[in-house]
Design goal:
two-stranded antiparallel sheet; alpha+beta; five-stranded mixed β-sheet; 7 strands; 7 helices
Amino acid sequence: MHRRPGLSARLKLTLSYAGFLAVAGALLLVVVWVFLLRYVPDNPKGLLGISPNRYLLVRTFTPAAAVAMAFLLVFGLVGGWILAGRMLTPLTRITDAARTAGNGSLSHRIRMEGRQDEFRELADTFDTMLEQLESHVAEQRRFAANASHELRTPLAVSQALLDVARRDPTRDRGELLQRLQTVNTRAIGLTEALLLLSRSDRGNFTRESVDLSLLAEEAAETLLPLAEQRGITLDVTGGATRTGGSAELLLRMVTNLLQNAVVHNLPADGTVTVHTETQGDTSVLRVENTGHPLPPELVPTLTEPFQRGTERVRTDEHAGVGLGLALVHSIVHAHDGTLDLVPRPVGGLLVTVRLPGML
């Protein structure tokens, strides 16, 4: 934004200091006149018949007062300039850090020394903002790089299949079309997940009253054929649990949790339990599944986009794109809730979602 040039803050403070001293000196002279010189008789004999009189005192005092005023003005300008410079030094450092950040370097920190005051509080707040911004930008860059890599894979596979079909016209077209359809379906699913993740991150959705228990039943009904195919028992318990938010996003959240619990389970005779309840002013959704033991250090990474732990990459028709729990985390955060993942001692995972309740 273009603005007309003006006086610097240091010059304004300097003029303020000098003006304050000049006004204080002038007031002191007025006090001397009002309470002293005006009571000196203006006659040849002066005060108590002793010289000097008022005329001589004023004549003698005026030059000295003028010199004192000039000294106060110069002292105010010089001292004010130095004092303003010392006072504004922290602000200069903050400005330099902001300018550096504006040029794209977010690693710079002010780290102002000294005791706590307004400038140091501002510097600490600015450092915290830079740290969070740097972390967010790094996360977005990793996300963009991973998303590009994930999208490039099905496109590369499609290109390879088309090249094979072009070089070998006698190859079974049905097999090629089936593989192309599988790859294309995966690419479409990944794109839709990315769009939904972006929408949940922005939080631009209409909030309405939603019953988590009904969403759990709907998601369970949708995934029941998959659970039966894998020999997994799917159980939904609990009562009505209402919260405020987007029914579409919350349904995707529950569906992703259930699909993750079904897919990453025991090869046979596994279980998935979904429970909803209200605890005070909090709506709770709990998804617990059996499965192989998970290393504790792996669990915190499961909500990161495109992160897949050991033995979690699948090659069947339900292969994930690494956005399931990342999308769940984003939806929960957009609804002002919390997401807790705890590995079960006997294997599997316990996921607890807490959202603000609604009466």
